[in-house]
Each structure stands twice: as structure tokens, then as C-alpha cells.
Amino acid sequence: MSTHTAISAPFGRMITAMVTPFKADALDQVDFDGIQKLALHLVATGHDGIVVNGTTGEAPTTKSSEKLEIIRAVKSAVPSHIKVLSGAGDNETSYTVEQAKKSVAAGADGLLIVTPYYNKPPQAGIKAHFETVAAAVDAPIMMYDIPGRTGVEIESQTILDLFNGIENIVALKDAKGQPAKTSKVIAESGIPVYSGDDILNLALLSLGAVGFVSVCGHTVGNELKAMLNAWFAGDQNRALEIHQRLIPVFEGTFKTQGAILTKAALDLLGLPGGDLRLPLVKATAKEIETLRKDLIAGGVALN
After folding, report:
1. Is 194 a catalytic residue?
2. What is the full DSSP assignment across 87-155?
3. How far apart are CA 265 and CA 278, in angstroms?
4. Are 67 and 59 in contact (CB under 8 A)?
5. For residues 121-128, average pLDDT
6. 67, 102, 127, 144: which is the annotated catalytic residue?
7. Is residue 141 scored above 60 in pLDDT?
8. C-alpha atoms less than 13 angstroms from C-alpha of 13 in its C-beta half-sphere
């Protein structure tokens, strides 16, 4: 077992999985002006990268053509140094390959590929899935391990095999919620890990993670960037202080589904959260009031 003390961050350190605002009309059209405003808001609050077409972006309910337009809209809005990654994962490998190719052609700087979901493939199938997608595109890939949504984890040995064996698999978004496994994978391979669960951001940094793919970065991006900067400057006390102050935001954003309350939070901030697509529904008045209290408790200045 080797020790890796300075793992590079291939997509920068501060990334948020951005929501997709929809227009409040019968057609649920994508609000591309709103998308560009949100992307610029993320840039202004310390982000190195943006993930579009992820879970928080309501990827399960956007069309392939919409996903490609979202990539183009964000790429055209943000400075060239901002990495734009696009979710392209599906439970069918051939469709994932097709979407990955189209996403790269549309301008994505990298791909976020989730474990195939619902069909619960064995590890051999998961490995073959990632190998097939990686071979089909000339772009860096971040694997996404979130067994609570997919029904199956990427086991540690599979992660090691893929990272060590495939050149363009360069990082892991970890939303497994099992820090012991994450710790061992980092120690054994030096894989760049991005925390995919805001409440565990600091914990995963302490285990060797390189950054975050956040949801709460919509509302507290500057603070999360400050936490990262403090941690990598060796000021662990400052990083812990920021983490503890943000706990109400971390908890409050997920008291119902994350995209629902993130859009409600953006509305409270005067930013374009926009509507949602069924089966997601807008937050209730009671949920919004609770969210308001949680955001204020975490130091967020509301209008």
C-alpha cells in the first residue's frame, strides 16, 4: 500500500451539480437564459467547474436533445477555464455511449458516468460498462458511485481496476456514504475523489479527497471554496469552523428531494430556480419556510 499526499484535482476542486430551471408553462420548456445566469452565479461564487445533466439537473426527465443544448448554453456563458462536465450515464450501455459521444461533441470538457441503475448488474457488468464507454470517447471520465439511487455500488476492487487500467477514467464522485471504503481506495490507488454528499465534504477531505461535486454550492459556494482553501492551506480548524456553520444548510437542502429544495433556495435568493418536471413537484409553503430558517441558520443572506 502506498501513500498519496498530493493527488491532483483533474477538474478543479469546487464543482456544483447545477439544477435545470424550467419555464412555468404547460410545456415545461428549459429556461436557457436562467441556465446561463445560474452558471455565471456559480462562476462568481468560487467554482472551478460545473456539472450539468446530473441528478440535481433532473437528467431523468430531460431529453437527449435538451441535454446537448444545456451543455452548449453553459459552455457559451462561462469563461474557458471553467470545466463543464455533463452527466451521460444510463442503465443501457449502448445509449450511454451514444450520449457520451454527443456530449463531447457538444463541448463537454468531461463526463460524469453513473453506475447503471435499476437493472443491478454484477461487478463484471459494471466494469464492462465503464470500459465500453471510456473506449468510445476521447474525454476524461468521472465515475459516479451512488448506490442509494442506482441499487448497486461500484465495489472497491472494481474502482481500482478501472482507475488503474483505463487512462481516461480519471476521478470518482463518491456518494456511497461509506468513508472506510473511500479511505482505502484512495490509499491504494491515489484516485482523485470528489465528495458527492455535502455533509461529508470535510470528512472526505480528511481521507484524501481532492474536492466537491456539491449541491449546496448553489447557495454557499463561496463558503465551500473557503473550506477547501483553508483545508489545503493546512488550516484544519478554519475548515472545521466553516463546516459546522454550514450544517443547517447541508441538512436543510435535503429534507425533501435535493433539486426541489435547491430550486426553492434559489428562488429565495432571487436567482432563477425555475419550475420542476414531474414526478418532482415544487416545495410546499411549509417546506419553504423551514428551508428559509435552515439557510439563515447557516449564514445565508436572503432577500
Report:
1. no
2. E---SSHHHHHHHHHHHHHTT-SEEEEEPP-SS---HHHHHHHHHHHHHH-SS-EEEEE-HHHHSS---
3. 19
4. yes
5. 98
6. 144
7. yes
8. 23
